[in-house]
Specification:
The protein is an alpha+beta fold and 321 residues long. The chain has helices at residues 2-44, 82-91, 116-122, 182-187; strands at residues 46-58, 64-68, 73-81, 96-100, 109-111, 128-133, 136-143, 145-152, 155-159, 163-165, 170-172, 175-180, 191-192, 196-201, 205-210, 225-230, 232-246, 253-256, 259-267, 280-284, 292-299, 304-310, 313-318. The chain has four domains: 1-44; 46-142, Beta Complex (RNA Polymerase Alpha Subunit, Chain A, domain 2); 148-230, Beta Complex (RNA Polymerase Alpha Subunit, Chain A, domain 2), CATH 2.170.120.40; 236-318, RNA Polymerase Alpha Subunit, Chain A, domain 2 (Beta Complex), CATH 2.170.120.30.
């Protein structure tokens, strides 16, 4: 009898658990659907929000350069649906707006309030502009200047264990011609790319890297990006015994030991190209040492790095002549 009662209790508990799970899942589903409908309702409503965008000018005569005294970034207060707000936050609705130079020819000031309808049309009329700041821009149109400047690649690289650059990072082109107003051209010594961050590299990379022209208002170039080559290779450690020399071989100095162990890291492809004759180590006096000479590496292959000398100092005797 007790066994049957226990069996019924177990059955009741299992049924209760299943009933609780169903009710809990139903509750969670209802909450989720309520949140979805609430979110959709919010997105369908009209909202006001801020958009920052950069102004670009089109149809500028080939021999002219246009510059803006203020920043080219303009702030808009716009009204649109929640969908447009979401799109502007996630996808950068439009990071540039264009102004046709022909519509402002002969002017030294642009009234942005008169261009609001044109800006709205560039956003496909999906948003209404309520306010713009600044409302006016002072412009200068002058003869275009040209200058050749080097390109500086902004890189932040890290490598997987045992890997490193096998040679210098190179890019093409390494310099470009820029055009713009004289005042801006003269202030630019080099042009930088957008920052590139690569981590745990274990293979060579070829990347097209854009030039960051947003940092250089009023400057133009036909070249917009560079081809970046990052040579990466697996490194190994090498070890050699190198004879110790003196700066003045006629000084009659004998060192103990007469050889130095040189450890280094080298790319696998260059491992067999490293020979003892590529290194030169000399022993020289150091005022901070007593009865010892300091070892100094004065010649090494370009392909090796992280060189260590063992020992770093040696004993010596001066031979009588």
């Amino acid at each position: 009898m007790k066994r049957r009662i226990l069996q019924w209790k177990q059955i009741f508990k299992e049924k209760s658990r299943k009933r609780y799970r169903r009710r809990f899942l139903l509750y969670i589903s209802c909450v989720f659907l309520a949140l979805v409908f609430w979110f959709l309702n919010i997105l369908n409503k009209s909202h006001r929000f801020e958009l920052n965008t950069i102004l670009q000018f089109t149809n500028i005569p080939g021999d002219k350069a246009l510059s803006i005294k203020e920043n080219r970034t303009v702030s808009f207060t716009v009204e649109g649906s929640g969908w447009n707000l979401l799109r502007s936050k996630l996808l950068s609705f439009s990071d540039t707006l264009t102004i046709d130079y022909r519509s402002i020819r002969g002017k030294d000031e642009i009234d942005l309030n008169k261009l609001l309808l044109d800006f709205e049309s560039q956003w496909s009329r999906k948003m209404k502009i309520m306010n713009v700041y600044p409302t006016k821009l002072d412009i200068i149109v002058e003869k275009k200047r040209i200058k050749k400047v080097p390109i500086e690649a902004i890189l932040n690289l890290s490598f997987a264990d045992g890997y490193d650059l096998s040679s210098k990072v190179n890019w093409y082109p390494d310099s470009i011609y820029i055009t713009g107003p004289l005042e801006y051209i003269n202030s630019i010594k080099s042009i930088k790319t957008i920052p590139l961050i690569l981590q745990n590299l274990n293979a060579s990379k070829s990347i097209e890297l854009p030039i960051d022209f947003n940092k250089y208002p009023n400057i133009n170039s036909s070249i917009k990006s560079i081809k970046l080559n990052i040579p990466v290779e697996h490194y190994t450690e090498g070890l050699m015994d190198i004879a110790i020399s003196q700066r003045n071989e006629s000084a009659g100095i004998l060192t103990f030991p007469s050889k130095c162990k040189v450890s280094y890291k080298v790319a696998l492809s260059n491992f067999h190209k490293v020979i003892p004759q590529s290194f030169k180590i000399i022993a020289e006096y150091d005022r901070n040492l007593s009865n010892r000479l300091k070892l100094k590496l004065i010649s090494k292959p370009n392909s090796v790095k992280d060189i260590q000398l063992t020992p770093e100092t040696v004993e010596y005797i001066i031979l009588k002549r």
